Records
---
Amino acid sequence: MSHRITVAAGDGVGPEITNAVLRILDAAECGLVYEHIQVGEAVYRSGNSSGIPAEAWEVLRRNPVFLKGPITTPQGGGYKSLNVTIRKTLGLFANVRPCRSFHPFVPTLHPGMDVVVVRENEEDLYAGIEHRQTTDVFQCLKLISIPGTEKIVRYAFDYARANGRRKVTCLVKDNIMKLTDGLFADVFRRIGVEYPELQQEVQIIDIGTARVATQPDRYDVIVTLNLYGDIVSDVTAELTGSVGLAGSANVGDRISMFEAIHGSAPDIAGRDIANPSALLNAACMMLAHLGLAAQAATIQNAWLATLEDGMHTGDIFRGGGSEELVGTRAFADAVIERLGRAPRQLQPVHLRGGAMPRTEYVRPSVRRECCGVDVFVCDTDSTPDELAAKLQAACDGLLQLKLVTNRGVKVWPGGFPETFCTDHWRCRFVSPAVEIGAPTPNYQPIDVAAVPALLARLHEAGVEAVKTENLYLFDGERGFTLGQGE
Ligand code: NAD
C-alpha cells in the first residue's frame, strides 16, 4: 500500500537535507508518493505575506502528512510565521519533540538523556491577542480551554503508553495562574487516573526547567503549555549535543506536519555540509504515524549505526567518536548502506506507530451566572481614593465597588502609598455579598444587563473604561480569582 504525502523542500539547507532524506526513504522502500509544494521565502517575496499559495493549501489539506524542510521567514515587512499559520489553520494541537543523547558518539553533558516534550500547540499566549490599553500598559491574553487541555494531556498519556514510556511529568505555574495553569494541572490529574501504569507528577515550571537542564535523566515524557513547551523543548534539544539531530511532529486529528527543529541555516546553505539527521528523525516519526513503524525502526537503526561508525557531519564531528567527516550526500549514502543493520552500542529503536486514539469532547452542562464585572479604567490624574469616589458615585444597588487594583495590587480600600501606580486600574464591581466579611465572599447572581447600565453611568461620570471582564459563577463557584488583598 502506498501513502501519498506532501513535501516542501524549504529554504536555505532545506533542499539539500530534504533530498538526502527522500533518498533514504526510497531506499528503505517505504512506498511513499510525494506531492511537492512550494512554500516559504520565494512565496513571501512574491508578495504573499502568509508564505503559502492557495494551491499549496489544497495539497496540504488532501494528504494526511506533511514533511517540511526549514523555512526562512524574511525579517520585517509584516511576514507571518508560516509554521504558526499552518499549526493553527490545520489544528495541529500537539508538538512532539523527542530529545535523546547519543553518547559517546555525540558529545553531551547528559549521556543517559531520553526525554520527549509534548507541547500544547494552539493556545496560551500564542493566540496572539495583544492590546495596548493605556499609555503605560500593554496586554497579551493567555487563553487555555478545557477541550484543548484535555486533548494535549490525553495525547501525552497515550504517547507514553504507546511508546513504552514509564512516566509523564506535567509542568505548570499553577501557584500563580490558579485558573489557567490550575486547569491544566487538574485535567492532568483527572485524566492520569486512566493510566495507572504510568508514574505521574506535577511540577512548577521554574524548578522543573532547572531540573530538566541539570538532571534530565529524571524525566521521560513532559507535557506542558505552549510557551513553557517552546522554551523547555529548546533546552532539551540543546542538551543532546546538536540542533542538527532532533526532529519534531506537529500532530492534528486529520493532518500532521513533521520537520527538523532547526531553521534554514543560511550560513551553511548550498555547501553540502548540513546534517540531515533532524529531518530524517522527523521523517521516522512520520512513518510511525502512518503505521510504517517497521520501516521507521529500520531507518533509525541504520542511522544509529552510521553515528556509531563515526561517519559524522561537521556539526557533530569531534574527537572521540568521529572517524570520517562527511557531507550531507555522503551521510545519506552511509545511512542507505547500513539499512538492515542494528546499532552495536546505542539502544536499538522499536517504534510503535499508528494514530493515537481520539476521544470527543463533551461540553459539560454548567449553570453560568453573572455576579459582577471588572472594569479596566484609564486614569492618569486621580489618586486611588479620588478614583474610587468617582466610581462609587456611579454605582447603584445592583453593583457595588469592591476594590481597585493597579497591576494586580490592591490600592483601594486601604492601599499603601509605596505602591507604584500606572494609568491602568482594575475596578471590581460585584453584587452585594450575603455574608459581609466572610473569608470567601458569597457572590449573588445578577442580571447581566446591569453591566452595560453601569458602563453608561461610568461614561457619564467621565470615567473611561478600556476593557471589561464579566465575573461569572459556574455552578455557584467563582470563575475568577480574588484580587490581591481581597
Ligand atoms: P538555524 O537553526 O537555522 O541555525 C542555527 C545554527 O545552527 C547555525 O549556525 C546553523 O548553521 C546551525 N545548523 C542548523 N541546522 C543545521 C544542520 N542541519 N546541520 C548543521 N548545522 C546546522 O537558526 P537561525 O540561524 O536562527 O535561523 C535561520 C532561519 O531559519 C531564520 O529565517 C528563521 O526564521 C528560520 N527558522 C525556521 C524554522 C522552521 O522552519 N521550523 C525554525 C527555526 C528558524
---
Amino acid sequence: MVTRSLLSGFGSYLPERIVTNDELSQRLDTSDDWIRGRTGIRQRHIVGEDETAVSMAAEAARRALAFGGIDPQTVDAVIVATSTPDQVFPATAVRVLHELSATGGFGFDIAAACSGFIYGMATADAFILSGKAKCVVVIGSEVYSRILDWDDRTTAVLFGDGAGAVVLTASDDPGNRGLLSTHLHADGALGDILYVDGAVGRSGHSGHLKMNGREVFRHAVGRLSSAVDEALGAEGLTHADVAWLVPHQANIRIIEGVARKLHLPMEQVVVTVDRHANTSAASIPLALDEAVRDGRIRRGDLVLMEALGGGLTWGSALARV
Ligand code: COA
C-alpha cells in the first residue's frame, strides 16, 4: 500500500468587514462596472485593527482540525504560506503552533506569493512521504490590505484578506485518496511584473504591491494550463477525470481561460473571487473549505488546484479528496 497525504480537515476564516466596489469607488476613480467587468470581483473582506495573519491562520487551523476531529497535540508541523506576516520572526507558523497549543510540533513560513499554498502542500507532502511527519497543517493567511497602496486604483481594487487551512495526514487508504502530485515552477526573470517595493532587509519599510497587470495576465493562462496538464499527465489522467477545478482566485477571466483549456464547464469550477477578491496564498484553501462544507466536493472527487503569483511562481496540485 502506498502512503499518501490525505486531506483530512478543511477550515477558513474571513474578516467580518466587507468592502464593496461601490464603497471603493467613493474614494478612488473606479466603478463597480469596471471592477466587475475586468475581474469578476464584487466585494472583498478587510481585516479589523486587531486581526492579523497569525490570528486568521490560527482560527482557520482550529476549524480545519475540528472538521477532521484531529487533536492539535498530534500536529507535527504547521506551514504557513504568507507574504504578509505579523513579524519578520518568529514565523507566523510558530505563533500558530502556540495558539493551537500544539506543543510537540515544528513550523515555518513559505514566501511564494499567490502560489504559496501549492508550495506549502508540496512541502508538507514531502515531509509526510519521507516519514518525517504524520500530521501537517498547511495554511494560507494574508492581509494584503496592509501592503496595498490605497490610492492606486490599478491594484487596490483587486485584493482582499482571509485565511484557509488544510490538514494533511499520513494514510494508507486503499482507495487511492490523498494528494496525488504537486508541480512547482518559478521564473525570477519575471520578478518585476508583480512585486512589493520594499522589505526591512533592503529599504527598512514594508513597501507596497506593484503590478503590471497586463503582463501578469499575458503569462497566467498559458503557464497555468501547462501546470494543470502536467499534473494530470503525471497520473495518466485527462480533463475528463477532473471533478473540480479549484483555482487561485485572481481574476474570473484567468479562471475561465484555464477552464476552457481544460474543456471543463464553469459548473465544475469553484469560484470565490466575486466575494473574496484575490486573497493570495489563502484563496485556494478558502475555496476548498467552502466547496467541501457546502457539499459540492465529495469524498473521492478528483480535485485539481493551480496558482500563479509574484516571482513569478506557479504550480499545480492534484488530489483525490
Ligand atoms: N478602475 C477604472 N479604471 C481602471 C482601473 C480601475 N480600478 N484600473 C485601471 N484602470 C484603467 C487604466 O488606467 C487604463 O486606462 P487608460 O486606458 O486610460 O490608460 C484602463 O483602465 C485599462 O488598463 P489596463 O491595465 O490595460 O486594463 P486591463 O484590461 O489589463 O485590466 C487588470 C487590468 C488588472 C484587471 C488585468 O490586467 C488583470 O487582471 N491582470 C492580472 C492581474 C492578476 O491576476 N494579478 C494577480 C496575480 S496573482
